[in-house]
Structure to design on (606 residues):
């Protein structure tokens, strides 16, 4: 695994009284996925394996090899032979191509996963969610993946375990249940310029119309993003915008956090020329009295060794109308401190944005407070991303309450009444506590200003309506309930819904395999469904005969050989099977990191 150094400092929304680097959040939060505390710690019993606790023939006695952090050959492939891979992982019909450990990823807890295939280079990348950010892994050589680096979380407040990633037009969109996280936007084409070292990346844009969110889905045909389980920004200051005017090379808008002291920027804003501070020390920190500062200008100062209040007070004394502090680490923080004599607003921009703005001087511009975000509940929070770096609020559907996950499509299924309409298929759970309502719900979101409920049905043995995915012909919806195994004492169950008539959806099968593990995320590709079940691993189901015999299991790879308990103590969170490389599946394991797998489905008539 190529990883030259481990720069894992996170971008955080913190209150700091002096210019210090924010710290990582190392521990997951203690609430369940609906935000309700049902136990002291959802992941009770989780033991993270930071390095591999198993070996394969390809890791033994190979000497030094390309790209390995410790100098040993990086290969970790192991075929499935006689029901085992590497004499460690139970399997059937799925080979292990490679494994990336937590230490190699720079993580302590892995959650969701998505992927991206670069249309220009044809390279495949796994986008691995973690408690501290999103890690980018080049898996183009599936047996020797390379870890490129991390996009740190936009916030560490709340200590959340959850993160979700989707892709649209070469941009990754990331949400988290961290407080005030919003939606991070990252231009994935930047990965083409990787320099071979573990890189800490910064965002290209950030949507702040909501704070936390549990999940998101993107309809790539329409360019609309749907956040679900979202929460508003808390009482901490809302982000602001620093605008640099043309013809500067830095012309554009830059997200900024206001200081925790002094007056806030206004929606009307203030404008003027930008000027970098000079206190005679050869730095732009502004820790001493300023020299030659043009009165009335907007001061730009670097984060550094002195208190934020000291920088702003010095700029104010020199006649500055406002202060923009450029961070010296990725992301931004809320600048803390107290000084009642400060009468000008101060904001912070990220390190990358600060560098860009300073490189574009001389320039004029403004600082404005963003309009308050729209009030939308925990249902479908709709965002227009047709301009990928300019996400804008588009609409809201909250009539059904909390939506845990969704898949939104331009409908092309058998129900002619809805052909061409934009339809969302929702896993709807009003609460994770006892007595909650758990349903599959369908909503027409064609008109973002007037979404319409089409169907909403419950089911037997419910525990927590979690996630589902349509078959390619749109006739069936495969649905998982996360807590039915634990609360109802049943085996791992996937419900098959006939949704060929959207107004009258019917559950036609509750398929249970031979394990007791909690199921989590399921996705379909062709005739197969790929299900991530916590302690029993990746399970592959054949969907050819859903109208007759129903689902059948054809392959599996168990990433948690310890047991198949109905617990959250370890195992796989999710999977992604849509890479350019045929037959390659990436699966995330909360306790062991990233697995690159290859089901032998071609040998079974795929």
């Amino acid at each position: 695994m190529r990883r030259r150094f481990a720069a894992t400092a996170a971008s955080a929304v913190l209150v700091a009284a002096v210019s210090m680097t924010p710290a990582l959040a190392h521990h997951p939060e203690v609430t369940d996925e609906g935000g309700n505390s049902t136990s002291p710690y959802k992941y009770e019993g989780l033991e993270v394996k930071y390095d591999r606790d198993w070996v394969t023939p390809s890791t033994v006695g190979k000497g030094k090899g390309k790209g390995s952090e410790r100098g040993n050959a990086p290969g970790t492939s192991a075929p499935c032979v006689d029901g085992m891979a590497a004499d460690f992982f139970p399997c059937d019909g799925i080979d292990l191509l490679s494994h990336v450990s937590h230490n190699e990823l720079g993580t302590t807890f892995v959650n969701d996963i998505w992927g991206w295939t670069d249309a220009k280079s044809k390279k495949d990348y796994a986008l691995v969610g973690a408690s501290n950010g999103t890690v980018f892994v080049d898996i183009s050589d599936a047996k020797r993946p390379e870890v490129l680096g991390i996009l740190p979380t936009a916030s560490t407040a709340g200590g959340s375990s959850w993160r979700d990633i989707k892709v649209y037009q070469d941009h990754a969109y990331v949400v988290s249940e961290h407080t005030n996280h919003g939606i991070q936007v990252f231009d994935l084409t930047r990965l083409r310029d990787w320099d071979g070292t573990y890189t800490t990346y910064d965002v290209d844009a950030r949507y702040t119309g909501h704070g936390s969110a549990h999940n998101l889905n993107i309809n790539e045909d329409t360019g609309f993003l749907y956040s679900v389980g979202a929460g508003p920004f808390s009482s901490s200051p809302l982000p602001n915008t620093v605008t640099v005017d043309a013809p500067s090379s830095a012309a554009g808008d830059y997200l900024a956090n206001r200081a925790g002291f002094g007056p806030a920027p206004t929606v009307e804003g203030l404008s003027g020329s930008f000027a970098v501070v000079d206190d005679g020390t050869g730095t732009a920190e502004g820790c001493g009295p300023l020299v030659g500062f043009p009165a009335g200008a907007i001061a730009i100062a670097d984060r550094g060794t002195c208190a934020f209040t000291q920088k702003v007070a010095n700029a104010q004394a020199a006649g500055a109308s406002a202060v923009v502090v450029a961070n010296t680490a990725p992301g931004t923080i809320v600048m803390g401190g107290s000084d009642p004599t400060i009468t000008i607003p101060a904001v912070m921009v990220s390190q990358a944005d600060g560098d860009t703005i300073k490189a574009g001087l001389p320039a004029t511009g403004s600082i404005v407070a963003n309009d308050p975000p729209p009030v939308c509940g925990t249902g479908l929070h709709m965002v227009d991303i047709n301009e990928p770096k300019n996400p804008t609020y588009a609409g809201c559907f909250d009539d059904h309450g909390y939506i845990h996950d969704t898949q939104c499509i331009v409908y092309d299924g058998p129900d002619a009444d809805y052909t061409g309409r934009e339809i969302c298929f929702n896993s709807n759970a009003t609460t994770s506590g006892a007595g909650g309502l758990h349903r599959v719900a369908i909503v027409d979101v064609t008109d973002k200003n007037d979404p319409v409920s089409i169907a909403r049905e419950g089911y037997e043995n419910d525990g927590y309506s979690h996630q589902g995915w349509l078959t390619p012909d749109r006739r069936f919806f495969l649905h998982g309930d996360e807590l039915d195994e634990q609360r109802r004492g049943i085996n791992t169950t996937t419900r098959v819904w006939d949704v060929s008539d959207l107004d009258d959806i019917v559950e036609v099968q509750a398929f249970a395999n031979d394990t007791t593990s909690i199921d989590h995320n399921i996705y379909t590709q062709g005739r197969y469904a790929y299900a991530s079940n916590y302690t029993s691993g990746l399970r592959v189901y054949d969907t050819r005969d859903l109208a007759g015999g129903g689902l059948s299991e054809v392959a599996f790879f168990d990433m948690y050989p310890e047991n198949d308990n109905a617990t959250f103590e370890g195992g796989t969170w999710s999977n992604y099977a849509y890479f350019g490389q045929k037959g390659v599946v990436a699966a995330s394991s909360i306790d062991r990191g990233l697995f690159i797998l290859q089901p032998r489905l071609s040998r079974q008539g795929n």
